[in-house]
Design goal:
Layout (H helix, E strand, L loop, with lengths): L2 H12 L27 H15 L6 E5 L5 H10 L2 E6 L2 H11 L3 E3 L12 E7 L8 H11 E10 L3 H9 L25 E9 H20 L6 H17 L1 H8 L2 E9 L28
Parallel strand pairs: 1-2, 1-4, 2-3, 4-5
Antiparallel strand pairs: 5-7, 6-7
Helix pairs in contact: 2-7, 7-8
């Protein structure tokens, strides 16, 4: 039995979920902070996005692909912020269908170990919160580097090895769990060929604050009505989020307790600057779209 095939079936079911009214239930917060219907932990996803966009702002690039791109929220925001050509790919055809329906972004269903793209096709490739699920990690990484011309951005969770060991033992019972463990040494073997920058992210303190804020947000969503000044409330929540996000790296260094790792592998060192290149609008992180019906 093919584990990847079983995960694809699981993901296709996930990306077909909708309410009784037909509103698509997204993985990412595509309807905005107060839009609802998103998977739990949606505010934490803004932390990872913040660190991805902080790196993109230091890169000179004209094309971008999100590998494991879900319903396409990240390439949509990248297109808005940086004005580059974007694509997405995901194991799930349903995820790719949602990406094209909602954002009008080209999305190609494919396995990460055999993507149908040319060598060096994309200036920047992103693989965020995906490699922890992959059955053949080494082959996936080689394929990511093959399609990347300038820079590969990776984000992965930092978890206890014993939890990953348990997940591996039970992977056929609990599909799409985290079956690969990562730490700051996981990508060091690429140093011989490329410049590799590794950064701990997702301070436990930041995650805790965002989860508390999400609880408040869910309470507002459950009781919202047309008489409530939702736009003002949402803007206030965004401002609080941005403050928490801006403090994340400081808290990682101060507390030394983190739950994620950001990796930048540079195939072209000249594409990277120590300072910001574009000064993108950080509010683009909170972009949203109308409810999508399927």
């Amino acid at each position: 039995m093919d584990y990847t095939k079983k995960c694809k079936e699981w993901l296709d079911i996930r990306y077909s979920q909708k309410t009784v009214e037909g509103i698509y239930r997204p993985h990412q917060p595509i309807y905005g902070i107060l839009g609802g219907y998103c998977d739990p932990g949606f505010l934490i996803r803004y932390i990872t996005s913040y660190h991805i966009f902080s790196l993109l702002d230091r890169l000179n690039f004209n094309s971008f692909i999100d590998v494991g791109g879900s319903e396409g929220f990240t390439p949509y925001r990248v297109s808005k912020s940086f004005g580059v050509l974007v694509e997405s790919t995901d194991l799930s055809k349903e995820a790719c269908d949602r990406c094209e329906e909602i954002f009008n972004i080209k999305a190609t269903p494919s396995e990460i170990t055999k993507m149908p793209f040319k060598d060096n096709q994309f200036d920047v490739s992103l693989c965020s919160q995906t490699l922890e699920h992959v059955d053949d990690l080494a082959e996936a990484l080689e394929e990511l580097l093959r399609i990347t011309k300038k820079a590969l951005i990776i984000t992965v969770p930092f978890e206890k090895p014993e939890q990953i060991k348990h997940n591996k033992e039970k992977k056929w019972e609990n599909l799409h769990e985290h079956i690969n463990h990562f730490d700051l040494e996981s990508f060091k073997h690429y140093n011989k060929d490329y410049k590799v920058l590794k950064t701990p992210i997702l301070s436990s303190a930041t995650v805790s604050k965002m989860l508390s804020l999400e609880n408040i947000t869910n309470f507002i969503i459950s009781g919202k009505n047309h008489d409530t000044k939702l736009e003002e409330i949402e803007k206030s929540i965004q401002d609080i989020c941005l403050y928490f996000l801006s403090q994340d790296l400081y808290l990682v260094q101060k507390v030394e307790n983190y739950q994620g790792i950001r990796v930048l592998i540079l195939k072209d060192e000249d594409s990277y600057s120590e300072s910001n290149v574009t000064n993108y609008n950080i509010q683009d992180l909170f972009s949203s779209v109308p409810y999508h019906y399927i």
